[in-house]
């Protein structure tokens, strides 16, 4: 038997520091309304089964409950935020992990092995709760499950245990169930069928890629043949090209020898090369000036000499005419004094003076022209001197002599320079000894080639090399595709292995399903018998309890689904559970529901006798039924279970005088 020994409440409602001692199998707590009885009952419930939304003001409060079993002592400490459990003075771990989930058990689940719902609907009766038929049915469903799992029958329990072991050991090991959902065998079978279909589709898809293998190999062989032909063509092309390079080198060497021999013949013009080069570097107008300089200068000097000679002639003639005119004028004057007729002979001097003036004008003009010619001569001399300074020659006559000589040998000088340039260009194209040796070693085909083929050499070579790179890329792509095919083969092997494994798993699951169905058929047959047996047991116990409580011959009959009907003397026909509240008084219905709860509580706690806490169990009963019911609880139920009864009917205590000593009276004050 499990007993609540002590409850200590701190700072909770009207209780500041209140201790309750339950040292009797049957404790009766009687006090007036609003004295704190319901608060005490709810404190017990919230300590045993803590809820997220508690109905008691636990903000600053604390509850300590001491519970004693046949061999162990438990203490539960409850405050607003947490609870702690101690067993024989040691903390108890009430959190466990199951497949990654944290499962927390309440103190009632650990000590009583009952859920909150079952405890409330069997062992903890709040005021007027006895009229709630739905809560009773939730417990009957729990009892039905307990019967199904062989609660009190070894054969059914053993059969189901074996099935569960097979399920969790064989299936839920993670091998046959590739997901976290537990217990859905049909879902597992469907999943493996879908996986096999998925594997088959993937396998078919991969096999399509395998069909390309022959085509890839054929294309690869063709490309390799083409690559070999290209390499042969490149070898032939390069061999011809190298032979042409060697032949051309021989031609260049002969040409150089010929040009050097010709330049040797023209060696006399070699001193004139620098002068010619400097001359060619001049501007075209400067070259033209030098070419025309000597002739222009000779023409200018000749013109200057002629004009100077004419000037001298004019000067001499002007003097003669001038003196002649003076002489004639004097003679005319003298003759005029002798004979006036001769005086007019002076007019003969007028034409002479006029001619003299003409000569004077011509002389002035000649002077101007002479000055211009001298200026031009000076200008030409300065210009030629400037140009001569570019030739590193100081003497003008020497420059002109060299220039004349250069003009005479100009053709040969040009030839010499051109030959020298050709020799330099040809020498640049000559092959070194290393190149000659290399080219000779690479000549495999002795063929005659022409210049047109050489001109197309680079184009052909570029085309071949480009195609060669394309073939390499295509070969690389084919190799990649072939590697994918090899990978596909490996994947197909893996998929076939997965299909084989999946098929085995599916076969195992289907066999297991058949075995499970057969097992359930057998267990269903067994549980039906058990239901019938339990119903008979509950009928006997229920009828006996009802008769004791009511004092009448009342019978209760449980069906195989644990629904029940009641037969009482006042009513001719049996009453179904839904008709009890309609056809019977509140007190009678209350006694029936209390009886059903007590029956279920005794059935569910056959191994662990949990305390029974009743808040106003006979609120709707008359005094006679109250006495009979209390007497039954004190004399019968308290023998196997601790009974705690809470009531506000103080006036009814006088009705229990004959039971004094059989219970302990406790006040909440």
Automatic annotation (TrEMBL):
<keyword id="KW-0812">Transmembrane</keyword>
<keyword id="KW-1133">Transmembrane helix</keyword>
<keyword id="KW-0175">Coiled coil</keyword>
<dbReference type="InterPro" id="IPR027417">
    <property type="entry name" value="P-loop_NTPase"/>
</dbReference>
<feature type="coiled-coil region">
    <location>
        <begin position="363"/>
        <end position="498"/>
    </location>
</feature>
<feature type="transmembrane region" description="Helical">
    <location>
        <begin position="321"/>
        <end position="338"/>
    </location>
</feature>
<feature type="transmembrane region" description="Helical">
    <location>
        <begin position="344"/>
        <end position="361"/>
    </location>
</feature>
<protein>
    <submittedName>
        <fullName>AAA domain-containing protein</fullName>
    </submittedName>
</protein>
<keyword id="KW-0472">Membrane</keyword>
<feature type="coiled-coil region">
    <location>
        <begin position="189"/>
        <end position="310"/>
    </location>
</feature>
